[in-house]
Amino acid sequence: HYYCRQSESIGSTLLGYIGIDTIIEQMRKKTMKAGFDFNIMIVGHSGLGKSTLVNTLFKSQVSRWSSGWGGEHKIPKTVEIKAVSHVIEEGGVKMKLTVIDTPGFGDQINNENCWDPISKYINEQYEKFLKEEVNIARKKRIPDTRVHCCLYFISPTGHSLRQLDIEFMKHLSRVVNIIPVIAKSDTMTPDEKNEFKHRVRKELETHGIEYYPQNEFDDDMEDKNENDKIREAMPFAVVGSDKEFQVNGKRVLGRKTAWGVVEVENPNHCEFALLRDFLIRSHLQDLKEVTHNIHYETYRARRLNDNGGLHPISANNTQESNL
Ligand code: GDP
Ligand code: MG
């Protein structure tokens, strides 16, 4: 340590500016050129406003299965998985956003094991990535289809979580970053909302469900303090909308309710802005890193172990994961 410190000061006092800090700019340029993948999955029974919320988050029609399809949309008999990708560009940075919708989840009479197709999809993406990684002729950049984040929509009942909610999050929180949100929170009064949030947090804790950002992956005290605040505010009670209203001379996204217009992006009205800032502005990179370093790593270690430990799976191995 002592030597480190000393050479540090020599660097800056005797040699003058070296330019190590330009690595930030170099990285920025590379990232801008390459762009990045971000894959978000939405789960919850139909009509909870999943498509609307994702569209509100990314301000465009990225999720095409909203009720806006002119009338009733049919409920599939089993859970279907549908992925749609869009390239969104902002400030010269390209993001390939894939929204993975799971219509049919929770809509059946018997919802037993209805998370199976979802967990299968998630594991298949890990498998795909692993196969690319062990390939002798590796791609310079492996396309990343792994699910970085799973938004789980909780029904705004005001009572408690359903058994299905608990089962789903329990099973899936081990393989993917789960972010629970309370859907359509404009249907609750502020008191009901706070009460419900509190109860949901308690229930999640009782059942030992670790949602994102997981305690155990906080890097340092600064991280922990920041994430503690987020965890205490979760699950975010959100409102989505694609309709604009005139409020105090400004056009805002909102929903008309008996109490007036609920402004989606106004933090005094709902927690949409909190969710957006958390998901996109502060934790997007971390969601990707936890997916890669924890969830994918767990899958990879298990797969290579099952495979006899020493020999990696061959590139043209067509055997599917046994999950
Ligand atoms: P999905 O089936 O979960 O994808 O739900 P949709 O996004 O298609 O929305 C279903 C219906 O709920 C539509 O009529 C939406 O306008 C409405 N909706 C969406 N978000 C909200 C919300 O935050 N609050 C209320 N009250 N209604 C919403
Ligand atoms: Mg939908």
UniProtKB/TrEMBL annotation:
First and last residue of the signal peptide: none
Predominant location category: cytoplasm
Protein name: Neuronal-specific septin-3
Molecular functions (GO terms): GTP binding
Start and end residues of each Septin-type G domain: 34-306
Organism: Oncorhynchus tshawytscha
Compartmental location: Cytoplasm
Homology family: Belongs to the TRAFAC class TrmE-Era-EngA-EngB-Septin-like GTPase superfamily. Septin GTPase family.
Keyword flag Lipid metabolism: no
Cellular compartments per GO CC: cytoplasm
Protein's UniProt keywords contain Electron transport: no
Swiss-Prot/TrEMBL keywords: Cytoplasm, GTP-binding, Nucleotide-binding
Entry-linked Pfam families: Septin (PF00735)
